[in-house]
């Protein structure tokens, strides 16, 4: 199956004014590419994870006035939804593509997962240095592992454990001008490789469900 990459016009969608206008562009330009990419990645992840995985494409249904600043697809083990579980994402802001393993604020057993990751922090610290960590899925900012030491990581995971709204995402960013982004097959390979690095963290988190 051929997979399309993302063009500059896809990133420019987030400069369109108005909720309806931006959502129309997201639905027509970006979501079909998520479906193509996501269907293949879901199959690959099901094999790697050893259980069924399901694709979810963000609908932004709760938005009534403000248009979304980013959009994404998510892959997780629950057919009904992904937000309450450890999951994988691929998505776009206007200035980068993100590839995440994500624990967002809606995960009910974050405390237990955080404790488990604190005990196994080497799974994160041993990732390639170009991987980045975010503590808020709604913000663009992320810190590369190259800039972090183990005490920084411990503090981030303790915050995940102790703060109700805390989040933890780890993965990679790509700029729109990176040749991988526009080449569908290269992007598919890159995302799969990224997920393979993240899979031990996902599996560790899933032991706590």
UniProtKB/TrEMBL annotation:
InterPro entries: UPF0637, UPF0637_domain_sf. The lineage of its organism: Bacteria, Bacillati, Bacillota, Bacilli, Bacillales. HAMAP family: UPF0637. Belongs to the UPF0637 family. It comes from Halalkalibacter wakoensis JCM 9140. This is UPF0637 protein JCM9140_4199. It comes from the Bacteria.
